[in-house]
Amino acid sequence: MKRLLALGLAAICLACALPLTACTPQQKLYSASWFDMFDTVTMVQGYAASQEEWDTQADALHDDLEHYHQLFDIYHHYDGMVNLYDVNARAGQEPVQVSRELFDFLQLCKTSGETLAGGAVNIAAGAVLSLWHDARESEDPAPPAADAISEALQHCNLDDLLLDSGTLTVAFSDPAMTLDVGAAAKGYTAVQAGQAARERGLTHALLNMGGNVYTTGPKADGSAWRVGVENPWPGEDAPQYVQTVELTGGDSLIVSGDYQRYFTYEGKRYSHLIDLTTGCPAAYYSSVAVYSSPDEGLGDLFSTALFCLPPEQSRRVADDNGLAVLWLGTDGEVAAQTDNWPGKAV
């Protein structure tokens, strides 16, 4: 699960206690939290001139987030739109016409997965991902059978995803293939919704979608938001955060880790992040953090890809794309970081 938390509302409020003229009574700090989207907690903190203005901004932001949640949902149909549930249900039999918005997102994911992410993120891998989802959500979790995984891997070829830009249609040449955009959807949504909020005037806000953090601008006094890369290693005296990163606007920080969404079977942890070369959970790292400025919505995709690639290949993908990355190893130590990584040790 992508997970990264702001360093506490009290710490953010501390800026308004300082004698800074930029932090005037006209700009107060407000917050809102929602639990009804993307199977995660969504939090926004930002500055507004009044409670009424904040409520208007927060309601508009929630509406945008809910729209993307419904558009990318693979489990439910919604009246008034063709979403991924509809695509998965019909595209194996006939081309399905979708909105320009959904088409462009699928095209972005397909192209980026192939050319940028080393093939480690594949939105056509729903057959494998659904096996692990069902195993994780069952009353008695256990890994899927090896033959079931092997069979599912035969239906994950991105070439079987047919996207026609002229007709805005999606089709599957393999009827057993399904789409799952969980590796990219939250990060993309955070950026799209955050940019729309900024255009509406919410210019000093931090949006956290289950660890996909995006800022529309700095705090009202011009200072940066400080966010913490969560410590993925358990321990009674372990600190809550490993490092902190400052975000000032249009940038984001996204973490992929094995410590939140997982199950344990016979003493072994199985996370939701799947290595598509084996069809089983990746186990190279405890977490991978990606800083992006500006973020075009691909930070989520990259953090997942880098988590699911072995060290040498993961580092090569990061370097080829100019990414700022922190890798946290399974041994309780920082495994590596790029030269442009902006984090600071706690």
Structure description:
The chain has 346 residues and is α+β, with helices and mostly antiparallel strands. It contains nine helices and 19 strands. An eight-stranded antiparallel β-sheet has the order 2-3-7-8-11-16-17-18. A four-stranded antiparallel β-sheet has the order 1-9-10-19, with no helix packed on it. It has a three-stranded antiparallel β-sheet with strand order 4-6-5, covered by helices on one side. Helix 2 packs antiparallel against helix 7 (185-199) and helix 8 (299-307) runs antiparallel to helix 9 (311-320). Residues 1-24 have low confidence and may be disordered.
Main sheet: strands, sense, barrel: 8 strands, antiparallel
Total helical segments: 9
The average pLDDT is 91
Order of helices and strands: EHEEHHEHHHEEHEEEEEEEEEEHHEEE
Shape designation: globular
Strand order of the largest sheet: 2-3-7-8-11-16-17-18
- Our estimate of the beta-strand percent is 25-35%
Portion in helices: 25-40%
Low-confidence stretches: 1-24
- Supply the helix-strand structural class: alpha+beta
Task: Tell me the total number of β-strands.
Answer: 19
SSE map:
Elements lengths: L4 E2 L2 H5 L14 E10 L2 E9 L2 H21 L12 H7 L5 E2 L2 H16 L10 H12 L8 H8 L7 E4 L4 E4 L12 H15 L5 E5 L2 E4 L9 E6 L10 E7 L4 E6 L4 E4 L2 E4 L2 E2 L4 E2 L5 E6 L6 H9 L3 H10 L3 E5 L5 E4 L6 E2 L1
Antiparallel strand pairs: 1-9, 2-3, 3-7, 4-6, 5-6, 7-8, 8-11, 9-10, 10-19, 11-16, 12-13, 14-15, 16-17, 17-18
Helix pairs in contact: 2-7, 8-9
Keywords:
19 strands, globular, 8-stranded antiparallel sheet, 4-stranded antiparallel sheet, alpha+beta
